[in-house]
Amino acid sequence: MTHRHAQRLSRRTTLGLLFAAAAGVMAAGMPATAQAQAKGEVRIGYQKYGTLTLLKGRGTLEKRLAEQGVGVKWTEFPAGPVLLEGLNVGSIDFGTVGEAPPIFAQAAGANLVYVGNEPASPASEAIVVPKGSGLRTLADLKGKKIALNKGSNVHYLLLKALEKAGVAYADIQPVFLPPADARAAFERGSVDAWAIWDPFLAAAEKQLGARVLADGKGLVANYQFYLASRTYAEKNPEILRIVLDEVAKVDDWGRNNPDEVATILSAQTGLGKDVVALAATRYAYGVKPVSPDVIASQQRVADAFSALKLIPKPILVKDALLPARQLATSAK
Question: How far from chain centre, in Å, is Cα 120?
């Protein structure tokens, strides 16, 4: 068996699991007329990183869905929380975010479902300080102002970093800012540290000489999740299957073509090739079904935010999955 053939078989097996829930919805009793009605457009939310940015840059999804009479509308978001707000209010159908945004969204009542995830990528986020900073350890963060996007993946990184250092969350001063505003605050010295993800992290390192105080290694998994509105997943399982099939193909391609990845990311993000090349070295490629271990990891994230009353109520992450019986339907 050739390597390429093995990749195709592996992708086919993975996708059979990834889309089991969506296919099971159709088996669970959707009318035939509803099954036959393809939505004219899939609206995808993306950020300045990862496989969806590559997918947009390569244009392969548009070609694939054109065969189904379906268009693609791309909307860029500055961070995961606002992307999931878009998903919740119905302005997009599908998107990708880090660990924390789905927790905050689910706690706020968003009717979303997990449909897949990329492998853990802990080095793709970090807490950085200015190059001349006297802060040397995580314990030095006590009493300091730390910029971060509230409810984003780095919010959980900060919690775990403080926990490791024995610093109470109440003993730091979080400054909640989206990435562009956080960078401005970091540059002018109005915050002492910045918790941020790639490619903004790579840009801070390359352009500002920012020093990494700690990245996610040994602290967090930093999964990237693919989510859809529950309504969209139930009504358009075949479209989701195609989208994630193309994600899997771009993952396979990106893993083996780092220079071309950097070229596409630079064009898509407007960042220098040296910046996105650094960020790309920390990506983890390979979309997978959301496993029990990953859901358990997400539950730990949810419990940590709940314990600090950063979300309005405790949640069960598994409630944001489509029923297990539907997984069995499609996996046969």
Answer: 10
